[in-house]
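Standup, Tuesday
Yesterday: got the pipeline producing structure tokens again.
Today: sanity-check two examples.
Blockers: none.

Example 1:
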Amino acid sequence: MLTKILPSHLHVTAIGIGSALGAGGSTVFPIAAGEIANSRGITTIPPLLLGMFAAELVLLCWLPGLPAKTPGRQASLEEIISLQFWR
């Protein structure tokens, strides 16, 4: 979806940033969950996971829809910025 929303000259940078954030999150969250469970007990893991799933759902709903395109025309940056994030 990212390659359809952004102009072609931003594809590599945006995918690189997204990959770096995903890799960082995949290392930070398990360590943080382990430390919280170590200090407060294992019973804190299910509420923590439920909160993380809820946050992911909110982020998923926050993704913009694709702007309407005519054949052979790429969406301008103004069209992308003006997308409504809350449907």
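Example 2:
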Amino acid sequence: MASGGGRTPANFATRQKARAPQGSVKIVKLCQQLGLGEGGFYRPGYRDGAKLSLRMMCLGMNWDPDSCSYGHKRPFDNAQPPNIPEELRKFVQDAIQVSHEFLEQSMGVANAVEKLPSMSPDICLVNFYGTSGKLGLHQVHELLSPMI
């Protein structure tokens, strides 16, 4: 059952679970650091004055929940979102590679890249929820299919 250097589905899953906590902590710390700088966390709202009960930060481009569109600057303060850090790009690439391995090794998919193409993110939304923060179940229809 072993192949490719002793990678069985059980070993594969164990290896990925062991990596997850340290990678998650590193990403949270990175986002906290970025969120304190220019273009960092803010409390988004709508034209009618209603505010979302979370803090948000955009990386790469700004997402405006009021107009449901992306732009290069935040409309309310003209701040430019921080670039997506290389660590986050690498995390995405690693996650896709792990997914390819899983699809091929555990699911028997012949060409995982056709099912899940490789990509490099150009936009990232980071939400921070305090103890009273929440975001209701929703689906952003503008993001379906061609952009994902």
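Quick observation on example 2: The CA atoms of residues 41 and 57 lie 5 Å apart. Residues 9-46+54-128 form one domain.
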